[in-house]
Design a protein that fits this description.
With 646 residues, this protein is mostly beta strands. 0% of the residues lie in helices and 45% in strands.
């Protein structure tokens, strides 16, 4: 991690994703959230060295490991110019990880020392923007996992600690010609900790690291001559985290690392040090309501747009199943009460309508292709807000129903084929807005519930089969509008959460969760997220659960939410084949998606390739015994040569 002073951005690259391949993404810190800038560049590495060359306006990255071990170390040098990465050198220091690097602003050189290439190494190298030069083989002993930063006031590169055959706690200075030992007292000996220089306070700030015991959580500062322990509280103890000084905001920034716990796991938290105390920064979207979300099945991420917080929002956010990140892209004008759905055939998210801060209704159509927003149509449904939208995957059409404008409430049904809008019905549900709608992909039906008939909330359930609307139920959840709904394809259920039961007054947000199985509604939960309305819910098919974000209870800004919840539904056991069937073609026994074994329902299995002459089916409770017999049991004596009962 390094701070780009030209653009006022803290830049973070790659790292160890914990259980995943090394990461190749580049991120920028805005002061309140992380923005993903690029997904390609250097190969995915961890434990690389990184610093900012202010004279050349380039972030320099060297080395690292692609597999977490010495076999994967690299000796490549890459530079980031604010827009993209460029490989600038494959020669210089030997391939290594756990080296330390700092930019010597007084001399205009990037300085590198030490590292690990299968063994700890020493030696000092300098990068001038064109080539590496080894400038010293003396100074500190060979080591890895140390840190370096440039002291502007002293005009020296400062190095602390690391590891050779034991943890080190010595402090050194490089003046451009030679190293000198400053002190052997201060922080306890340690390796991969975080170190940066606070130019506003003229202090080096050090946090955490790995020592002889648990991961450390102490904060130290060096004033140029001696170290002082300034805090023992703040981020949980950790190691291998990233630390940098944000000179635009006057804060030392910390991200991630291996966090102490019952086991070492990767952290995704962000903290700031102001010279007095650490503060954890919430990197979720700010609280909001009346936003829209859709799950992008092609890229396995949830995209959220717009809504209302203290003002109309224009932001686009991405949820990757673990964290939110803001995408710095232009898009539709800011709006609330728009609607969106993912078009799986064309792999675009389609967004329509909404309302501006001046109560202007929109009638424009936009699409998100995974990288950019594009306006694709200004013709179609009349401008409106609070319409309902879902994607019919069987017919490859986006379905839109109803909504509200200054002219009144709508009851028309439209379809989007990727090029044009077509009005397909003006009969069916009565005129309404803020109804909950989703597509049941197992039954091939678009399901609509409730909404507001302008003066009262509604509680009826309708389904669209592509030709017409059919009212399928008048019982179920209490009448409501501004609820949110998504289809759980793994369980074959439409999930409805929250909403508002009264058109008038405030404080009427609901917190109940209901499920529609195609025949009837059932109350699944009366607790979970706090009561709310105008939240957004999607089904994450990659994670296998519903994701809910935001909303509000009483309509006031101070009561809006920015929390993220997941809904897994009731426990479902799994069904899978055990062994292989025999015969030609072989028998197969396959579970039916959405009809897995579940309390209160009937499980279904498909037995395929059954012989027309003779077949026997045995069901038991064990795959190792059948009564007094041991499984597998040969069925050859029973006239089925080559077959076993498993």
């Amino acid at each position: 991690m390094a701070f780009d002073t030209q653009r006022g951005q803290m830049i973070l690259f790659g790292g160890d994703g914990v259980g995943a391949p090394m990461l190749t993404d580049t991120w920028a810190w805005t002061g309140h959230t992380w923005l993903e800038l690029a997904e390609s560049g250097p190969p995915g590495v961890a434990y690389a060295a990184m610093s900012y060359d202010i004279q050349r306006d380039r972030i320099v990255l060297f080395g690292g490991t692609t597999d977490g071990y010495a076999n994967g170390v690299t000796g490549e040098t890459w530079e980031w110019d604010g827009a993209s990465w460029t490989l600038v050198s494959s020669s210089g220091p030997s391939a290594r990880a756990y080296a330390a690097m700092a930019y010597d602003a007084g001399r205009g050189k990037t300085v590198l020392f030490g590292g690990y290439d299968g063994a700890v190494v020493g030696g000092t190298w300098e990068w001038d923007g064109t080539a590496w030069t080894q400038v010293s083989s003396g100074g500190p002993s060979a080591r890895a996992g140390h840190g370096m930063a440039y002291d502007i006031v002293g005009g020296k590169v400062v190095l602390f600690g690391g590891y050779s055959t034991s943890y080190l706690g010595d402090t050194w200075e490089w003046n451009g010609t030679a190293w000198s030992l400053v002190t052997t007292s201060g922080p306890s000996p340690r390796m991969p900790y975080g170190l940066s220089y606070d130019s506003q306070r003229s202090r080096l700030v050090l946090f955490g690291g790995e020592g002889s015991g648990p991961s450390l959580g102490d904060t130290w500062e060096l004033n140029g001559a001696s170290w002082s322990l300034v805090s023992s509280s703040g981020p949980p103890g950790r190691e291998e985290h990233a630390v940098g000084y944000d000179s635009a905001r006057g804060k030392t920034l910390l991200f991630g690392g291996k966090v102490t716990g019952t086991s070492l796991v990767g952290g995704d938290d962000t903290w700031e040090w102001d010279g007095v105390a650490w503060t954890e920064v919430n990197t979720s979207p700010v609280w909001r309501s009346s936003h829209t979300m859709a799950f992008d099945e092609a890229r396995n991420e949830t995209i959220m747009f717009g809504g209302h917080s203290s003002a109309i929002d224009t932001e686009t956010w991405k949820w990757n199943g673990t964290t939110w990140s803001q995408l710095m892209v232009p898009g539709p004008p800011g709006r609330r009460f728009s609607c969106s759905a993912f078009d799986a055939q064309r792999q675009h998210i389609v967004l329509f309508g909404g309302r501006s801060d001046t109560v202007q209704n929109f009638g424009d159509t936009w699409e998100w292709n995974g990288s950019i927003w594009s306006q694709v149509s200004a013709a179609g449904p009349l401008p409106r807000e609070s319409a309902s939208m879902a994607y019919d995957s069987q017919r490859a059409r986006v379905i839109l129903f109803g909504g509200l404008s200054v002219a009144g409430t709508f009851f028309d049904t439209w379809e989007w084929d990727g090029t044009n809008w077509t009005q397909v019905s003006t009969t069916g549900p009565q005129a309404r807005y803020s109804a909950a709608m989703t597509y049941d992909s197992q039954r091939g039906r678009t399901v609509l519930f409730g909404g507001s008939g302008y003066l009262s909330a509604l509680g009826d359930t309708w389904e669209w089969d592509g030709a017409g609307w059919i009212q399928v139920s008048t019982v179920g959840p209490p009448a409501r509008f501004q609820a949110t709904m998504a289809f759980d394809s793994s369980r074959g259920r439409s999930i409805l959460f929250g909403g508002r039961v009264s058109v008038f007054g405030s404080g009427s947000g609901q917190e109940d969760t209901w499920e529609w199985d195609g025949t009837s509604w059932s109350l699944a939960s009366s607790s979970g997220p706090e009561p709310r309305t105008s939240a957004a819910l999607v089904y994450d098919s990659q994670a296998g659960h519903c994701v809910l974000f935001g909303g509000h209870n009483n309509g006031f800004a101070q009561d809006q939410r920015n929390d993220t919840w997941s809904w897994d539904g009731e426990w479902i056991s799994t069904a899978s084949s055990f062994g292989a069937g025999c015969g030609t073609p072989p028998l197969s026994l396959d579970p039916v998606q959405g009809r897995e074994p579940r309390l209160g329902t009937t499980a279904e299995l498909v037995l395929a390739n059954v012989p027309s002459t003779f077949a026997t089916v045995a069901i038991g409770w064990s795959d190792s015994t059948l009564g007094t017999l041991t499984l597998p049991l040969s069925l050859t004596p029973y006239g089925m040569p080559g077959c076993d009962l498993l």
